[in-house]
Design a protein that fits this description.
Elements: E1 2-7, H1 17-26, H2 29-34, E2 35-43, E3 53-59, E4 64-65, H3 70-80, E5 83-93, E6 98-108, H4 114-128, H5 139-158, E7 181-187, H6 192-203, H7 207-210, E8 212-218, H8 224-229, H9 234-247, H10 252-255, H11 263-268, E9 276-279, H12 282-291, E10 301-302, H13 314-332, E11 338-343, H14 353-368, E12 373-378, H15 388-398, H16 414-428, E13 432-437, H17 444-447, H18 457-462, E14 466-469, H19 478-481, E15 489-493, H20 498-506, E16 514-517, H21 529-533, H22 537-558, H23 563-578, H24 582-599
Parallel strand pairs: 1-2, 1-7, 2-6, 7-8, 8-9, 9-10, 11-12, 11-14, 12-13, 14-15, 15-16
Antiparallel strand pairs: 3-4, 3-5, 5-6
């Protein structure tokens, strides 16, 4: 049995990808059987919503000291000038009837003492040559550096407490000499100062630190994302540059500008000092190896993300699709034969313009076959959602979401550019129209009275014929393949990390449920890295125009023509999704990675 401490900004609520990963890992039978106790460690953000906590045992600022370790925690607070919250959070997987209570340590470092912080920064320089003074103006860097020492001390204190078994069981009796292994998992850069603190204590000969193993969990490579997103050549340019550079033994610093201006790079550059590295996709492994020389031969563990595997029958599938078709008919005055969807965050990496490129080619193909379709894009810059009453008002005033106006409560930020593309497409298309729903949620209350009253979010997953997700940078891409078990065709780009997991789950077979768009393939091999570095908007446009035509033809050939085709897609999709489940991830990837961390622990 083992203890795992996850260091992340999503310790008390799911806000993004890391939260989804935690939820997936922790709510599996395999994780519960292997991990005795779980800690979630992160910052206590000012004004944080604490309703997600099951219980609070210690929060001196609120007069709560219901733990035998109250005095020790209070001493830590005084030493570092921080406020600590210690409690428990409940995770529930209703489909699998799983409930798990995790320990939570939150630290408010907004008023921390400068002296211990300055000393820790000196140790980071002394041991790892991290120049904290370069990054002190960035609060994200400062926050996680200040978090490391008090959070580490609080964890050490609480590890002396008798652990609690899963809900409904009593404490586990244990002799001191039979203490379990403790794994410190740094989710992205956030936990690296904590991991480095652990390594510093190990170097000093601390016995507690000696039985801790540090793991860097790469949900992306923070150095690489801005390089891909920040240049108009995007993935076409970067991945071809990386391939050629690595074949010549070059690293990112040899080809691109020095990345040490970026505090995230400064931290993840030291990840090779950890006892193990987990990477969520095959290209993430390559990107890490491209990061710096010490990563080239490092035994990086692939730990894919899992995806849901729901069982659904043909009747349920068609009922959800019918609700989507009815909504489309109400909005557009025609009932589409096919329903396409794209549920995503509204960020550049998602490559939403590629949806429109594929649909431009598909439009004429469907028209010649006397078929119609609709694409619902569900994405917004306002993640918390617009007020329901505002949506109902603009629906009534000017026909949202078919028609939009610039300015809140409608289009803001990147929504404006996307809507411009959608409007241009709709102006000329014959068989396909795109509806851009820039609202969080998928129900009549959140999206207006024209949506069927019985509509719910799962309908956009169950009822979809094809889900788009042709990202330019996507370490894994859970959302792209979430509709897989519902019989949808998942259209993903080859840079999505889920492609590697799909290949393993399908035994490298070409299955009708998956269409992989390769926008990084160059017809004529370039003669040098310098040539590829010059790739820009025109070169990418040319490649995307050609490849999107192929994707449209492939998608048309795989769209179901009759109910039996849909049934076959549901069965095949469920079987693939089952081989990509979180249970599979924990059993075949996560736990073996922990075991390897024990056997390959660095001697510092």
């Amino acid at each position: 049995m083992s203890i795992v401490a996850h260091v992340t900004h999503e310790a008390i609520q799911k806000m993004g990808g890391i939260g989804a990963v935690l939820e997936g890992l922790l709510t599996t039978h395999t994780y519960q059987q292997a991990i005795e106790r779980t800690f979630l460690i992160g910052p206590l953000f000012p004004g944080a919503e604490l309703s997600g906590l099951e219980t609070v045992f210690y929060h001196a600022a609120e007069g709560i000291t219901e733990t035998p370790h109250a005095d020790a925690l209070s001493g830590i607070e005084q030493t570092y000038g921080v406020a600590i919250l210690y409690g428990q959070r409940r995770f529930v997987n209703e489909n699998q009837n799983i409930t798990l209570l995790t320990d939570v340590i939150l630290v408010d470092v907004s008023n921390s003492n400068e002296q211990p912080t300055a000393h820790f920064k000196w140790e980071l320089y002394e041991h790892f040559h991290i120049e904290s003074s370069r990054y002190e103006s960035d609060w994200e860097f400062e926050e996680y550096v200040r978090l490391a020492e008090p959070a580490y001390d609080a964890l050490r204190v609480l590890l002396t407490q008798e652990p609690q078994r899963p809900v409904g069981r009593g404490p586990v009796p244990r002799e001191p000499q039979h203490l379990p292994n403790v794994f410190i998992i740094s989710h992205e850069f956030m936990g690296m100062p904590f991991a480095l603190k652990t390594l510093i204590e190990r170097r000093k000969g601390d016995e507690g630190a000696a039985r801790m193993r540090t793991i860097f969990y790469a949900h992306e490579v923070a150095t690489i994302r801005p390089i891909v997103e920040g240049h108009p050549g995007h993935d076409v340019r970067f991945y071809n540059v990386m391939k050629h550079a690595m074949s010549q033994g070059k690293s990112v610093r040899d080809v691109f500008d020095d990345a040490f201006w970026y505090f995230k790079h400064a931290l993840i550059d030291k990840a090779h000092l950890c006892d193990a590295i987990f990477a969520v996709g095959d290209l993430v492994v390559d990107e890490l190896r491209f990061l710096a020389k010490p990563f080239e031969d490092y035994p990086i563990n692939l730990v894919y993300n899992g995806i849901p595997a729901f069982e659904v029958n043909l009747t349920e599938k068609l009922a959800s699709k019918a609700r989507l078709q009815t909504y489309a008919e109400t909005l557009l005055d025609y009932r589409p034969d096919y329903v396409f969807t794209h549920v995503t965050r509204l960020v550049k990496s998602k490559g939403l313009w590629r949806d429109l490129q594929v649909l431009t080619h598909l439009d004429s193909l469907l028209a010649s076959n006397d078929k119609t379709a609709v694409l619902f894009i569900l994405s917004t810059e306002i993640a918390t959602g617009r007020p329901d009453e505002a949506i109902h008002q603009i629906e009534k005033e000017y026909g949202w979401p078919v028609h939009h106006k610039i300015g809140y409560p409608d289009l803001v930020g990147a929504e404006i550019e996307l809507n411009n593309g959608v409007s241009a497409f709709n102006l000329h298309s014959q068989a396909i129209k795109v509806v851009f729903v820039n609202q969080f949620g998928w129900s009549q209350s959140t999206c207006g009275n024209r949506m069927p009253a019985e509509m719910e979010f799962m309908d956009i997953r169950k009822g979809s014929d094809a889900e788009f997700g042709q990202s330019i940078y996507e370490p894994f891409g859970i959302a792209q393949v979430e509709p897989l078990s519902f019989g949808a065709i998942c259209v993903v780009s080859n840079v999505c990390g889920c492609c590697g997991f799909i290949r393993r789950a399908t035994g490298e077979r070409d299955v009708p449920n998956i269409v992989i768009a390769d926008y990084t393939h160059l017809g004529i091999p370039p003669d040098s890295i310098e040539t590829i570095l010059q790739f820009g908007l025109s070169e990418r446009n040319e490649i995307e125009a050609e490849n999107s035509r192929d994707i449209a033809a492939k998608l048309l050939g795989r769209l179901p023509r009759k109910p039996r085709d849909v049934e076959d897609m549901i069965q095949e999709g469920y079987e693939i999704a089952s081989r990509m489940s979180w249970e599979v991830v924990v059993k075949d990837y996560f736990l073996p990675g922990l075991q390897r961390a024990l056997s390959t622990a660095h001697v510092l």
